[in-house]
Structures are given as structure tokens and as C-alpha cells.
Design a protein that fits this description.
InterPro entries: Aldolase_TIM, ThiamineP_synth_sf, ThiamineP_synth_TenI, TMP_synthase. It holds the Pfam family TMP-TENI. With 223 residues, the protein is α/β, with parallel strands linked by helices. It has helices spanning 20-33, 47-61, 73-81, 98-105, 118-124, 154-163, 180-185, 195-198, 203-215; strands at 10-13, 37-40, 66-70, 88-91, 110-114, 134-137, 169-172, 190-193. It has a single domain (4-215), classed as Aldolase class I (TIM Barrel, Alpha-Beta Barrel), CATH 3.20.20. α5 (118-124) links the parallel β5 (110-114) and β6.
Length: 223
């Protein structure tokens, strides 16, 4: 891919357990370390608070990486109206359809879609090309940031899933730095993490380690 959607290798998904000042510091460190995408995920917040956080994150990121909003197309639109640079959304299966998001956000927006079953993968092939930029596929390992997560795929399950779609697949759910090589060999276009950066004692160092692993030459046969 070319353009913004081609920058998928390393995603930071925010942890809504962090107070805003700490979240901004973590995102600043991660952006400096070279993450490609920051995804604002805060399911417990009001739309107004999400817009405020999106604007604050946009200022901190300062175009160093992409900013996506999890689930809320309305927040993405409103944050843009308020002057924030929001590059797109990541949608779940119960959110607005990706084709609706594309119409609202425009052709240059990045639109990701969560997919963790064969039915989801099949549904992703229905919209016309250019509607969905990538699939978020997981979970790879059990994760405390999503206690209601779907069945664990592991690396082998991820590989089987990714082989069945032409869309880039980003691995998410309990991913650690030591998983990156195996996931890339399994066909991952990128990896997405929450705790691996947000819960690290040194988020910048954690992000740099993940960046280095994501940039290393992919090795065939890694398991």
C-alpha cells in the first residue's frame, strides 16, 4: 500500500486506565520512538471527553504518527471539526459499518476493522476495495486489557487467518516484543500493543525495542 494506510507496522492502543497526563507522556515517548499509529481507545469516556483527549493527543503527536479513534466515527468527525488531526478510525463489529465510515471520513482516512473469526473475514471481503485498510486480528495471547476477548489464536491461528484474506492483518492481544519476529513470519503487516508500552517502566525504551523488532528483516520459518 501507499499513503497513510501503508504505515501499519507498529500500533500503540491507549489504555484508558492511565490518567490523561500520564497517557500524554506515554504517547509522546512512543511517537518519538517511531510508532506508526496511536489508537485512542477509551470505552468508558463520554463523547465530549474523547474529543478533548483526541485534541490533546493530536497536539502531542504533532504529525509524527497517525492518530485513529477506536469505535467512534462521530468522535473522529467532531475532533476534526475542533481542529484535531485525526487520520481515521478502528471499528469493531458492533460499530458503524466501514463503508459508512469511509463516506463520512473521506478517501484518505485510514479505516481498520476488528476481525477474529472466519465470518468476520468473509464480511470484510464484501465492501468495495479501498473501504477497509487493514484488519485487527487477535487475540494472540490472553490479555487483561480486554477481559472479554475472543478465543486465543496464537501465532499459528493468526497465520491461518491472515492467509485467507488479501487485506493487511495487524496482530493484537497480548503481543510482546519476543512475538514480533514470529508474527511477521506468519504474515502480519503490523502489530498492535497496549500494555507492552503503556505498562512499561520506560515506555520510550519499550517502544524502541518494538520498533527495532518490527523493522528487522522477516525470517521465514520462525515459530
Amino acid at each position: 500500500m501507499t499513503g497513510p494506510a501503508g504505515r501499519l507496522a507498529l500500533h500503540l492502543v491507549t489504555d484508558d486506565r492511565l490518567p490523561l497526563d500520564r497517557l500524554l507522556a506515554v504517547v509522546d515517548d512512543a511517537a518519538a520512538a517511531g510508532v506508526d499509529v496511536v489508537q485512542l481507545r477509551a470505552k468508558s469516556l463520554s463523547a465530549r471527553e474523547l474529543i478533548r483527549q483526541a485534541s490533546a493527543l493530536s497536539d502531542v503527536i504533532d504529525r509524527r504518527c497517525l492518530l485513529l479513534i477506536n469505535d467512534r466515527v462521530d468522535v473522529a468527525v467532531a475532533a476534526r471539526d475542533a481542529g484535531a488531526r485525526v487520520d481515521g478510525v478502528h471499528l469493531g463489529q458492533s460499530d458503524l459499518p466501514p463503508d459508512t465510515a469511509r463516506r463520512l471520513l473521506g478517501p484518505r482516512a485510514v479505516i481498520g476493522w476488528t476481525a477474529d473469526s472466519a465470518d468476520h473475514r468473509a464480511a470484510a471481503s464484501v465492501p468495495r476495495d479501498g473501504t477497509i485498510d487493514y484488519l485487527g486480528v487477535g487475540v494472540i495471547r490472553p490479555t487483561s486489557t480486554k477481559p472479554d476477548h475472543p478465543p486465543v489464536l496464537g501465532v499459528d491461528g493468526f497465520a491461518a487467518f491472515a492467509a485467507g484474506t488479501h487485506l493487511p492483518c495487524v496482530a493484537i492481544g497480548g503481543v510482546e516484543v519476543e512475538d514480533v519476529a514470529a508474527l511477521r513470519a506468519a504474515g502480519a503487516a503490523g502489530i498492535a500493543v497496549v500494555s507492552a508500552i503503556c505498562a512499561a517502566a520506560d515506555p520510550g525504551a519499550a517502544a524502541r525495542a518494538l520498533r527495532s523488532a518490527a523493522d528487522a528483516p522477516a525470517l521465514e520459518g520462525v515459530a
